[in-house]
Each structure stands twice: as structure tokens, then as C-alpha cells.
Amino acid sequence: MASALVSSTVLSVFLVFVATVSAQTPPAAAPSGPLNFTGILDKNGQYTYFLRFLADTQVDSQIQNQLKTTTEGFTVFAPTDNAFNNLKPGLVNSLDEQKKVQMVLYHVLPKYYSLNDLQFASNPVRTQATGQDGAIFGLNFTGQNNQVNVSSGVVETLVNNALYQKKPLAVYQLDKVLFPEEFFEAKSPAGAPSPATTKKPSEPKSSSKASEPAAADNSGSSGRNIGLGLAIGIALACMGFLS
Ligand SMILES: *[C@@H]1O[C@H](CO)[C@@H](O)[C@H](O)[C@H]1NC(C)=O
Ligand SMILES: *[C@@H]1O[C@H](CO)[C@@H](O)[C@H](O)[C@H]1NC(C)=O
Ligand SMILES: *[C@@H]1O[C@H](CO)[C@@H](O)[C@H](O)[C@H]1NC(C)=O
């Protein structure tokens, strides 16, 4: 009787053990394939602009590669296509390559933050974007009642639903594109040529009507020369780039 009890106990322990092991095996095999960063955005269908910027700047492959080894993880804020459509027309196209990279990296934090972490993060939180002087661009987060806002100083928006939230990667939706304050400070000397061009129309006033066609001719040929010089310059630059 006693031995029957013992053996049935042993048997049930054994069965529980077998059941536990077999129950554990499928979940271990479950994570189907590696974590696919762009796949998360791609399957959603409303991040085509952001995906294009990620690809153009190769930030997508950088993140994908670093996800394999990172201990800190990453947090990515993904502006929707609507967010890009709501920007001032031409704004994004006016950014040079360096600024495009900065803009994309400004949406990436080199650390995994759950939505709750963001609520209590100490501001400013460092992003992956840096200025020309190497200064790190930061973002400020403010939380209330489980809602978190992100602010760049010039743009503030709600951190919307998590598309993915599992260490090492968090991806959140944004309804606005974040731009660092630094983009809008200190206009570069690129603005200088416009006063020069506005001066030009005053020149014909002082010259006589007869000389005008000649002046127009001159400006026309010098325009062509500038065009030719520019073409040669670009060609040389391309050769330099290739060699
Ligand atoms: C990740 O997903 C994208 C888009 O769905 C796909 O094109 C790409 O091949 C995937 N990459 C990997 C490594 O599975
Ligand atoms: C988030 O920003 C919105 C405006 O964009 C504002 O109405 C709201 O109060 C902010 N919430 C927090 C928690 O700062
Ligand atoms: C973050 O907040 C601090 C303190 O209020 C402020 O000085 C800083 O400019 C803010 N930075 C951004 C990126 O909003």
C-alpha cells in the first residue's frame, strides 16, 4: 500500500516533470526569427516616409546591426506619414544630407525606455543626434496620468501607442516630426546672397535705355559661364568622390 503510494507519487512527479519540460520547449523555439526593426514599421503601413529616411541615411541597418549586441537597447519614435504630410511644404527637402541624418537620429534614443520609464526619465534625455560641435541633442519628456509628451523645444507631441515594447527595442508612434531647436537657430551665411540679388534691379535705372540690351547680353553670357563652371565643378567633385 505504502509502496504503491510512493510509486504513484514518483510517477506523478515524473509526469509533472515531463509535462513541464514539454510545455517549456515550444516557447523556447517560439521567437520566430530575429527581431526585425524595419519590419515592425513596415507591417503597419503608415510609416513609409520615415522608413525611406531610415533607409536613405542607413540608420535602419545601423540599428538592426546594433540590436544584436546592445545591452542598453534602443527607443525609436516613428512619425506617421500624416506627420510628414503636415510639415511646411519643402521643409524636409530643404535639409541637407547631414541635417537629414540628424533629423532621423533625433528620433532614436540609445537606451530602451518603456512608456513608464519615459514618464520618469531625467530630462533632457540624450538622443543619437549630435550637432557639428559634437553636442548631443536632447529631448524632454513629461508625464501625467500615463500620458507622456515629448518636446524638442520647438515641437511637442504625445508619445502614442507602442508598436513594439520589449527590451532591447521600443518603438512608439508620433503624430509630429521632431526637429531639434538647433536647426532653427543661427541662420547660416547661405542667406547672404539674397541682398546682393535684390540690389541688381536698381542697376538698369542708372544706365541708359540703349545700354540695357548690352547689359542683358553680358549678364546672359556670364550666367552661362557660371552654369558651365558649376557643371565642371560638379563633374570634378564627382570624380574626386569616385577616386
Ligand atoms: C525585415 O522586414 C522587412 C520589411 O518587412 C523585410 O524587407 C526584410 O527582409 C526583413 N529583414 C529580415 C532580416 O528579416
Ligand atoms: C502634452 O501636450 C499637449 C499639447 O500638445 C498638452 O495639451 C498636454 O497637457 C501635455 N501633457 C503633458 C502631460 O504635458
Ligand atoms: C528641456 O527642459 C530644460 C529645462 O526646462 C530646458 O532648459 C531645455 O531647453 C529643454 N530642452 C528641450 C530639448 O526641450
TrEMBL record:
Domain FAS1: start-end pairs: 34-178
Subcellular location: Cell membrane
Membrane in keyword set: yes
One CC-aspect GO term: plasma membrane
Bias (Low complexity) ranges: 193-216
Biological process according to GO: plant-type secondary cell wall biogenesis
Annotated segments matching region Disordered: 188-223
Keyword entries, A-Z: Cell membrane, Glycoprotein, GPI-anchor, Lipoprotein, Membrane, Proteoglycan, Signal
Record's function text: May be a cell surface adhesion protein.
Name of the protein: Fasciclin-like arabinogalactan protein 6
